[in-house]
Fold this sequence. Notes:
By secondary structure, the chain is mostly helical. It has one domain (2-259). Helix content is 68%, strand content 10%. It contains seven helices and six strands, in the order H-H-E-E-E-E-E-E-H-H-H-H-H. It has helices at 2-48, 60-80, 130-151, 159-174, 181-206, 209-243, 249-259, and strands at 87-93, 98-103, 106-107, 110-111, 120-123, 126-129. The strands form three sheets. It has a two-stranded antiparallel sheet with strand order 1-2. Strands 3-4 form a two-stranded antiparallel sheet. The protein has a two-stranded antiparallel sheet with strand order 5-6. Strand 5 and strand 6 (126-129) form a beta hairpin. Helix 1 (2-48) packs antiparallel against helix 6 (209-243), helix 2 (60-80) runs parallel beside helix 6 (209-243) and helix 4 packs antiparallel against helix 5.
Amino acid sequence: MVYGLQGHNKAVARSGLRWLRVRMGDQLNWVYISISLLGVLFVLMLGLNPPYSGGDFSLRKPVIGLSFALICVLGALAALFPKKCSTIPHYSSISAKTSQYFQGLSKGHHPVCKQFASHTIVLCGKVLCAGCTGLFIGALLSIVCAGSYFLLGLEGIHAQMSIFLGSFGLVLGFAQFAFRGFVRSLMNVFFVVGALMILIGVDSLVQNFFIDLFVLALTLFWILTRILLSQQDHNQVCRICISMKKECELFLKYNKSNSNR
């Protein structure tokens, strides 16, 4: 009897900690979203009221351009080789809330589960992650455009227009979770290209190395926010199954594949 009560108390404690982690994670994501949107507002204010140009030096453009290109290269590599879903936690029993870790049956680095269908696209018969595909394409386009402006000296569109359009594209990227399939991929392309358009617009308008560095730091923060939102979106998909008291489809497939061995 005592052992049973101890087991029950441990289960309640685990459930409480799980709820606390979810709540704290949701609140933290709202903090990141708020700071990211404030960053967008800041660059829009720069576009409307550019400060006095100063702090410039001859290597400003190459240094800033190569720095942004490096961010794009690392992002493209992360999109090609994502770590997500190599092992993923799922509930083997909804009533017992027992978390089971197992090798994920995945395609496009998402679980083979209909709940994740909106997260993938099919291209040339191959299942790909919609978000990562868009980020990869956006990174390649941005590397070419960044090289053209920062290294070759080619001018883009009007600086203020570049900032406004880039900000709009960035916000669309944050809203990509409301879309599915190829539209979701397109939103992620807008996210990366939008960040570049903001950087080019600010550099052309202000011509200040330190403000360019600040925009690069903002870009890294926007990427981090995008990653956190993606993780929250994945967790929310599984939470919906749990709230509906459904047996995890992926876990059933995992058990079936093991029984056939």
